[in-house]
Write a structure and sequence with these properties.
The chain is an alpha+beta fold. The chain contains three helices and six strands. A four-stranded antiparallel β-sheet has the order 3-2-1-4. Strands 5-6 form a two-stranded antiparallel ribbon.
Length: 145
Amino acid sequence: MCEELSDVARKHGPIDLRLRGAGSFGARVLWIGVDGGTAALKDLATDCLAASPREVPEDVKPHRAHVTVAHARAGQVRPPRGRDRWGKRAGGEPRSALEPAAQALSVYAGPDWTADSFALVESHPGEGAQGGPRYEIVETWPLEG
């Protein structure tokens, strides 16, 4: 796969990006959005996935560019009943501990930066802090296109 990803890197050039806005996936994941050259970023992600020797499940294919910044623990999540767009229940109580942060960060606009490389990262489930995954960079490629 490393050889195929090297070919991908030669095809794509650096991408100008910025962090902008925020939200949550369900009640457990807080994300900050990626803005700027998102079409080029999606093309890069699509080509990287196509380089995989395995079939990529539909739910793994590129959707919305984002950076995951937090996960709520199971005890911090409340059932999603009768909530507004920020996840607050009718009584004003957020449905998870992440909802106030998602609301506060929704207006965030970070500085521009240029992504000039990408990496193949291997996940080692259960080997990280508190039994979570440990991630290892296998190889990094400059975007040369």
